[in-house]
Amino acid sequence: MPDLLLELFSEEIPARMQRRAAEDLKKLVTDALVERGFLYEGAQAFSTPRRLALTIMGLPVKGKDVREERKGPRVGSPDAAIQGFLKGAGLASIDQARIESDPKKGEFYVAVIEKPGRATTDVLAEILPQIVRSFPWPKSMRWGAASAEAGSLRWVRPLQSILCTFGPETEDPEVVRFEVDGVSSGDATSGHRFLAPDPIRVRRFDDYVPALERAKVVLDADRRKDMILHDAKDLAFAQGLELVEDEGLLEEVAGLVEWPVVLMGSFDEAFLDIPPEVVRTTIRANQKCFVLRDPATGRLANRFILVSNLVAADGGKTIVGGNERVVRARLSDAKFFWETDQKVKLEERLEKLESIVFHEKLGTQYERVERIAALSRELAPVVAADPALAERAARLAKADLVTEMVGEFPELQGLMGRYYATLQGENPSVAAAIEEHYKPLGPSDRVPTDPVSVAVALADKIDTLVGFWAIDEKPTGSKDPYALRRAALGVIRLVLENNLKLSLTSLFAKPFARTASSALFAEFLKAKELIEAIEQSPFAPVVEHPSVSELAGIFRQRQIAEAEKLARIMHVRALDLLSFFADRLKVYLRDQGARHDLIDAVFSLEGQDDLLMIVRRVEALGRFLDTEDGANLLAGYRRAANILRIEEKKDGRAYDEAPDLQIVNDHGLIEEKALAVVLHQARQEAATAVESEDFEGAMRALSRLRQPVDAFFDKVTVNAEDPAVRANRLRLLNSFREATRTVADFSRIEG
Amino acid sequence: MTSEPAHMNPARSFQGLILTLQRYWAEQGCVILQPYDMEVGAGTFHPATTLRALGPKPWRAAYVQPSRRPKDGRYGENPNRLQHYYQFQVILKPNPPNLQELYLGSLEAIGIDTAVHDVRFVEDDWESPTLGAWGLGWECWCDGMEVSQFTYFQQVAGFECSPVAGELTYGLERLAMYLQGVESIYDLNFNGLEGDRKVTYGDVFLQAEQEYSRHNFEYADTEMLFRHFRDAEAACRKYLEAGEPRSGSNDSRHLMALPAYDQCIKASHVFNLLDARGVISVTERQSYILRVRELAKACGAAWLKTEGGGVAA
């Protein structure tokens, strides 16, 4: 069976797009083939900075022949019908059609249409140009003389050549001929840009890979990664050092070279006085180089690993020298930032936060810090933190955003604040909280445990969530530009992993109120700015506008009138945020392996806004249902609920009044009396237990219902002849159903 | 190249680097222009790039452009940063299919031998919010150092480039520092001579860096600059309107795209000065950028109605 080899050769493809593009190419080509009935044995895609390559193994030489019989008009039909039939079936004359007869229809014509399967090369020549034209690059461009015309080819960077061959292993394959905007397919490619630039003729995948290797191109990105990692570790080992591994950097670097040559450079030891994270980030972000550490001490070494794309004539001396120069300049900058940043105390930087807009409608970072500081202080007692320390940490938490270092390397936010706070003698908890208040950043990130960190981390996230809910900017579908889902998950993990008992509703109340009033204030500021702009412009005399003091009056009046309306709106949005939390908690618990029906059973009770209590309840419910008592009680509940559903429907009314104990006493059987008594006790006990958050106890109380419920169903006929007795028994069952609701909504439980 | 006398040698003198690049691109059919006679933030602002990138007419040009970034001033104290520096700018429209090879040839010409230097094209998409322009391309690395920007213009002044132009920008000081092996811009040998006759970059520009940093950050007259911004904006609009084709006339060409564009350049530079003085808030900043972009777009639209923009005379 023949194989396909396709290579799309272009100018340098961004490293971050290569792997995805290779996968897209494989999927698009194989899908298009399968859709046309061409099955294959296997396919593999590859990428380098200058090429996407695809091989598909075991394709048929041509498609399947198709034979089709088409029924035509009766013999002797009008000429128009005959002609239409001939045209449709592609016959030249009616002699080519067969005549068949049928007892009902009589004699009629049948055309036999035989379509030979199309040659695979023809189909490829049809598919491939379309795929190239509509390739899903994240960003694409036009180029060259052809770009003068509308609709010219787009590619990630100029597409230079296409190699496409098809054929069996044993014979010379043929070139699949096609053309895309002036680029014609052939059987040639190029090697390494500098080391082997001459064209290479290629027949099939088996000789393509070694031919490229001879021309200093390693086709497989994973192999390039292995080579880099292996060589880097070797070089490090030879110096008694250890590579600081970095998968993201490795992936990127493998996309920047076709022929990796790993080299080692060094820098002045004096730079090691800078925090190691800064050294690493400087060398990584700017130079795409790896850092090394001393395995004995774990401290960074004054060496780095660079990956070049060249077997240099001088053994890499010039390349290392050049890279060292740049690393030196960058580290000098970093050292300068590190030293100058220390000259200004963090609290003196706060004023500068006023010029950083956090969000158009949510004010500046400065205003945000004010809100977070207030909230941290309020939260402190709940998380057992010192309120003064929590407020201090919150106030300094964003100050490093206006340091030189974070300006240069935004990813060091928090960490630099911690360093600078420590240097200026802040309490260690305050310094730690400055770094940790961003945490947790994802489902696997560490959750802070220091109470001060917890207070500020919660305040930061709650301020963000409440702010965006207050201005009605919620995540929709896959769009979550402000990472609000992550913030909510952060709150959930902070609360649960630190065993914090707090009511979300009351937590939201103040931040919502603060945001609402500042939103109105922001509107006022905007209007004020507008008026000032008008007053400065030459149009001032001709435009009618209020003065700034008039504006203040207008807004004061509006503030009073709007306060109530705003409060109503904010209430609705707070409830909405609460249900967002409920959704996120469900997702979180599901990921933790909790049964989703149990989560629903707890959530459908009203007033659930304490995350820790919800989770405890779900856990207790799960354990209870695993016991025999639990399982039987659930069965009893279902029986009761079924009877009630049927009877209530039949009667067109609910039996939600309390059962009349007089009737039970006068007419009831012993089992009925027993249930009524136990029900009353169990319900009270369960409610008391829930009150004191003893969910196990509540379940235990309910489990005492199991025996009387079973006995009731055993001996008592609900549908008694006396309508009063019947109604009262239904009320008794309803009362049982209600009792279960003290712990969960049993109707949501499955299985 | 090594046979060149030191005062012409790209590895020995700053001027030699400029002269070599000019000669190289002249051989590729570029018109070698002189710097635009206005203050600009980058070589792209020269009408030979911004405006000539628009419209169907082929165009090849290369020039040095003194560029001013008031905010980057460091009072002459930082060895790597300047508020006034030189860019070498090349534009080829449409971009020839071998533009990457031509670029590598220019590196060869200034003494960067690709047998020992690691030259790489690393993704870097370019965007100028003030010019309403963007393109895709790379930063070109030599041994880990960014030495040039390479961009295929996709849009300029809000208009699609058809055909697309290729733009190359060389940061001359940084490149010269590498070629000459010096650690500070001010130590660059400017004229290639030695002893008494040697002139360094510092001899030529250090005083200017100190004085302009003072001016840019402390003394630039903001009231005057705000006024100049408004004036330039108004003048730009006025010239654009006055240059519109007369209704009823057979000639449909715009008559004053270039003078109008000068005012757009002026507004942009005045904005940069105000920004350096720290008198523009973050929110205002965005609106100033938008105002300049609106001017740039209007000038681009006018240019497309001129002969240079492709309208037949």
TrEMBL record, chain A:
<keyword id="KW-0436">Ligase</keyword>
<dbReference type="Pfam" id="PF02092">
    <property type="entry name" value="tRNA_synt_2f"/>
</dbReference>
<comment type="subunit">
    <text>Tetramer of two alpha and two beta subunits.</text>
</comment>
<comment type="similarity">
    <text>Belongs to the class-II aminoacyl-tRNA synthetase family.</text>
</comment>
<dbReference type="Pfam" id="PF05746">
    <property type="entry name" value="DALR_1"/>
</dbReference>
<dbReference type="InterPro" id="IPR006194">
    <property type="entry name" value="Gly-tRNA-synth_heterodimer"/>
</dbReference>
<dbReference type="GO" id="GO:0006420">
    <property type="term" value="P:arginyl-tRNA aminoacylation"/>
</dbReference>
<feature type="domain" description="DALR anticodon binding">
    <location>
        <begin position="635"/>
        <end position="738"/>
    </location>
</feature>
<keyword id="KW-0547">Nucleotide-binding</keyword>
<dbReference type="InterPro" id="IPR008909">
    <property type="entry name" value="DALR_anticod-bd"/>
</dbReference>
<keyword id="KW-0067">ATP-binding</keyword>
<protein>
    <recommendedName>
        <fullName>Glycine--tRNA ligase beta subunit</fullName>
        <ecNumber>6.1.1.14</ecNumber>
    </recommendedName>
</protein>
<keyword id="KW-0648">Protein biosynthesis</keyword>
<keyword id="KW-0963">Cytoplasm</keyword>
<dbReference type="GO" id="GO:0006426">
    <property type="term" value="P:glycyl-tRNA aminoacylation"/>
</dbReference>
<dbReference type="GO" id="GO:0005829">
    <property type="term" value="C:cytosol"/>
</dbReference>
<dbReference type="GO" id="GO:0005524">
    <property type="term" value="F:ATP binding"/>
</dbReference>
<dbReference type="InterPro" id="IPR015944">
    <property type="entry name" value="Gly-tRNA-synth_bsu"/>
</dbReference>
<keyword id="KW-0030">Aminoacyl-tRNA synthetase</keyword>
<dbReference type="GO" id="GO:0004820">
    <property type="term" value="F:glycine-tRNA ligase activity"/>
</dbReference>
<dbReference type="GO" id="GO:0004814">
    <property type="term" value="F:arginine-tRNA ligase activity"/>
</dbReference>
Automatic annotation (TrEMBL), chain B:
<keyword id="KW-0648">Protein biosynthesis</keyword>
<dbReference type="GO" id="GO:0004820">
    <property type="term" value="F:glycine-tRNA ligase activity"/>
</dbReference>
<dbReference type="Pfam" id="PF02091">
    <property type="entry name" value="tRNA-synt_2e"/>
</dbReference>
<keyword id="KW-0067">ATP-binding</keyword>
<dbReference type="GO" id="GO:0005524">
    <property type="term" value="F:ATP binding"/>
</dbReference>
<comment type="similarity">
    <text>Belongs to the class-II aminoacyl-tRNA synthetase family.</text>
</comment>
<keyword id="KW-0963">Cytoplasm</keyword>
<dbReference type="GO" id="GO:0006426">
    <property type="term" value="P:glycyl-tRNA aminoacylation"/>
</dbReference>
<keyword id="KW-0547">Nucleotide-binding</keyword>
<dbReference type="InterPro" id="IPR002310">
    <property type="entry name" value="Gly-tRNA_ligase_asu"/>
</dbReference>
<comment type="subunit">
    <text>Tetramer of two alpha and two beta subunits.</text>
</comment>
<keyword id="KW-0030">Aminoacyl-tRNA synthetase</keyword>
<keyword id="KW-0436">Ligase</keyword>
<dbReference type="InterPro" id="IPR006194">
    <property type="entry name" value="Gly-tRNA-synth_heterodimer"/>
</dbReference>
<protein>
    <recommendedName>
        <fullName>Glycine--tRNA ligase alpha subunit</fullName>
        <ecNumber>6.1.1.14</ecNumber>
    </recommendedName>
</protein>
<dbReference type="InterPro" id="IPR045864">
    <property type="entry name" value="aa-tRNA-synth_II/BPL/LPL"/>
</dbReference>
<dbReference type="GO" id="GO:0005829">
    <property type="term" value="C:cytosol"/>
</dbReference>
